[in-house]
Sequence to fold (422 residues):
Amino acid sequence: MKLIPQLNKMKFEKLYYLSKNIFALIFILTFVLSNNSYSSSLYQTTQVIKGKSKVWSDSKIINEDVIIRSGSKLIIENTTIEFGEKGRIIVQENAVLEVNNSQLTGLTSDSVMWQGIEVWGNSKSKTSNPGRVIFTGEVIIKDAHIAILSGKRQVLTSENKNPFDESKSGGLITNKGKLTIQNCGIGIRFTPELVKYPDETLKKELKNINIFCSGNLRDSCYSTSTNNPYPNPQNPWAGYANQYQRTDVGIYINGIKGLDISHCTFNDMQYGILSYDSKFNVQDNSHFTNMIYGIKLENTYNSIINSHEISQCFFDNIPGYLNVETGPAVESNTAAIYIKGGYNDYIHNNRFGDFLTNQKHNHFGIETFKSSVFEITENEFRNFNCGVVTKSSGINGGFIGAENNSISSWDGNRFTNSWRSI
Fold:
């Protein structure tokens, strides 16, 4: 008879401690959810846009994929959309995303970076229409790992070492207004195209875009001093970390033939434009300031299909810091324009440096390496340590001098306060 009260007492104690633990767990969960900006209750779930056009004009907070299906259109206008670290907009082939007078940004309540916009093409088909993103009015994209990716991410495996699916390259980017890309790991990235779309109206052009970094990027993995710098297994698509924890590349171009860049500004990043085996032009009042390389062009072989024209651009503070070891006899690790393996490149009517800039903040103006048939004419260099450096030129060499045409006065290349001109 005495065992029953004892058993009841044991049950009571177990229930007491169990209820106490449950209460503590509920308290902890309540605290976490109320103080954690990643709470699922704050987010829209994955959304699929299909059918007729859909308009978003109200603010939203999203931490999943927004997928715009082929044949569909999403219009974001006059609003702000905040994204958590999993947030991403995917524009499938033959789909359209139009952003008008809006801001796409990471969470204002936390320090995360979102994934950005992916716009897909179909590099295996000449007849399909690529996806397209169109910007009108004033648009800001902020705090993304890649603000706009013309292509598709894919998961790395033991058999697949490429973090990007090149079969989905060729997505189109059209800016009809004023586009600002701020504090992103990479501003715009193009993955290699396997075919060229026959429709001439699908012209690849980037204009009136301002890409810059102000202060450190939100994600500390963009710093080389962290234990797990980007790109890493968790984020193999990210730009490379650097000692300044700033934007890696403004526009990254790989395997693209035919692209015009004009009226764009790039400030405070590692590379303004970084390209591999591509053909494009940079013209008409594009500015490059405070970076290691303004434009860096790398080619695996010399070919006219990888030629470039760079004209009427401005470069200053390249790299923008003092280096007492920098001089004509020192190998460059920075340049306003660097070309490796170039062929038939035409660089003219650009301005390098300013009279108010410290000469030691501008190291090398133009450097070519293993390049041929280049023309460097009618450029002005002010307060650059070295104006033009050519190394290991090809059999046909190149020309550095003056020309007489409709946009120049046959002044040649002018050098003011340069340690060495050529």
Observations:
- The radius of gyration is 26 Å.
- Residues 224 and 243 are 5 Å apart (CA to CA).
- Confidence is low (pLDDT under 50) at residues 1-43, 326-331.
- The first strand starts at residue 47 and ends at 49.
